[in-house]
Amino acid sequence: MHKMVVLYPEPTDPDHFRDYYVTTHLPLVTQMPGLLAWRYSFDVAAAQGQTPYFAVFEAEFADAAAMGAATASPEGRRVSADVTNYATGGAVVIHYPVQGGTD
Description:
Alpha-Beta Plaits
């Protein structure tokens, strides 16, 4: 399994972010080919101190090739292009193969 995580710093308009993300962006995400599972949260907390992130998103793919194909697809390009419509604080995208443990 391969996971993509998107970390969102605080936006200039948190209410717009939440509304747009749920009503517009996530429906685009669900159209990405090869997407096995996804989840998000607006309740991001740090173990100590203040969190540098407002929201987090996780997506799961069978492997890195499936993730690459999804992000390169027309649907994936639409998802990427849409980020500027709500994430005024930017976005940090990381991905990695998942090893060990249970889900």
